[in-house]
Amino acid sequence: MKFSILPITFFFLLLFGVSAQAQRVSVSANVDSSNMVIGDKFQLHLTTSLPQNAALESIDLTALKEVENLDVEAETNWDTTQVGQDIVLKKDLTLQVWDSGYYWIPEIPFVLKQNGASNIYKTNRIPINVASVILQDSIQLADIKDIIREQANWEDYLFLIVAFLMICFAVLAYYLWQRRQAQKAAPPILEIKLPAHEIALTALNTLKGEKLWQQGAIKKYQSRLTYTIREYLENRYEIPALESTTDEILRSLKKVDFDSSWKDKLQNILQVADLVKFAKAKPPADFHDRVWQEAEDFVIATKVKPVIIEAEKETV
């Protein structure tokens, strides 16, 4: 059987050319320094090199913005240069870390289109070490030499003795005057403290009327909502909820008379609010009204119920 090798040779050359062009695509990431202290700003440099028949569709910075205690302060536009027959794109991001520890700059996905197909390329992960601020004194102080002291006598302390007696007399006179005035004053007005559930329900209704999340103030809305719940838990169950983490609150509730059926919903409300406040999470729109309703239901269901004592009927 006879056949021409020319079409086959052309096919392999075409395949090799497409593969070579695909191999010319590269993405990379690097930082100015991997060691810094809290609050330092540093640059993350993103670079992609691609042939002229390819184009950058987009990059996804979601994973970077979700790193805890890491903020993206600014970013530049793409800088385009030509190196030989390839196009090189560069972008710089200004980052800042707000807590010490060991972090990873995550992989950044690049979506590149070549030969009619879209492919995803990811940059390398980068470790960074953030240390606490260390203050060092640059001034060396000389030792203090002792002074030559003369022998003291009682006359040296005469002024202090007289001053002390005068202060004692003044304090005693003020105390007697205050006591006499207190006896003349009217009895103090007793402050009536509202029940914990009334305080919470009033705060929830006020929050709902302000329509904060509808105006884009999601973080403020979630902060107010969780503060109301924490304040209610502290007033209702006498636990330090305002100063505790979500896990510490749940552990404290195990020691009091708390309906455990609300544990999962309460944990979900507090944890999602923490993500909104500290990790800049964006829950769906229907979440805000639903979590408000769950907070109101929780307060109503767990409020202190009045004890009704029925008087025994007298028998004739």
Keywords, separated by commas or semicolons:
single chain; 316 residues; alpha+beta; Immunoglobulin-like; five-stranded antiparallel beta sheet; three-stranded mixed beta sheet; 8 helices; 11 strands
Structure description:
The protein is of the alpha+beta class and 316 residues long. The strands form 3 sheets. Strands 1, 3, 5, 6 and 7 form a 5-stranded antiparallel beta sheet that branches. A 3-stranded mixed beta sheet has the order 2-11-8, with no helix packed on it. Strands 4-9-10 form a 3-stranded antiparallel beta sheet, with no helix packed on it. Helix 5 runs parallel beside helix 8 (285-302). A hairpin with a 2-residue loop joins strand 6 and strand 7 (86-97). The protein is built from 8 helices and 11 strands. Among the domains are: 24-131, Immunoglobulin-like, CATH 2.60.40.10; 196-302.
Give me a quick take on this structure.
The protein is of the alpha+beta class and 316 residues long.
